[in-house]
Amino acid sequence: MLRRLYDWTLSLAARKSAEWWLAFIAFVESSVFLVPADVLYLPMALSRPDKAYRYAIIATIASVLGGIAGWYIGHYAFEAVAKPVLEFYGKYEAFEALKVSSGAGIILLMLVTSGLSHLPPIKVVTILAGVVSFPLGWFIVSAIIARGARFLFLAWLLRTYGEPIREFIEKRLGLLAGLGAAALILLYLLVKYLH
Q1: What are the residue ranges of helices labelled H in the chain?
Q2: In whole angstroms, what separates CA 163 from the centre of its chain?
Q3: Burial of residue 111, with CB atoms counted within 10 A of its CB: 0-12 exposed, 13-18 middle, 19 or more buried
Q4: pLDDT in tens, 80-106
Q5: CB 112: neighbour CB atoms within 10 A?
Q6: Is 185 exposed, middle or buried (0-12, 13-18, 19+ CB in 10 A)?
């Protein structure tokens, strides 16, 4: 099922309505959808490198708006909407563990790491931020920075290196972003426990 969903998302890049689909996928990825917007963004930006930054801005804005929707779902509709979604994806237990151990600093760190590298998945963090009433203003600022950095960096890579960088992005960028996220988490923990 996941492979069919991935292939369907990828097929949207060839449509005339691809920008709308990119906005839609980026929006729902941040609150309920499993496939990241990168799956649609990458082929779009490779086929039209002159529009890579435009696509990055569309994806960023839609992703931040989707994150806000996720925050509201977590804050106002956890039992009715968020819990069934988390259970469907098998993320409910992980969510509960995160909820118990999360203070404001950890939430902010997770917003940045999930925005940059999908670790943990962005939909889990946006819903969690709403559940624990993380300040919406800080949530929006961190989402703009993290998601904007991710999509604009991808745009820069694609504009600078073109098709040869695609394989690297698809195979290794997640790993590098994950290592960067792990370094941020380690730095946070070191600072927290050394004080």
Answers
A1: 2-11, 18-29, 38-47, 52-76, 83-88, 92-101, 104-117, 122-131, 136-161, 164-168, 174-194
A2: 23
A3: buried
A4: 887 887 788 787 887 787 777 767 777
A5: 22
A6: middle
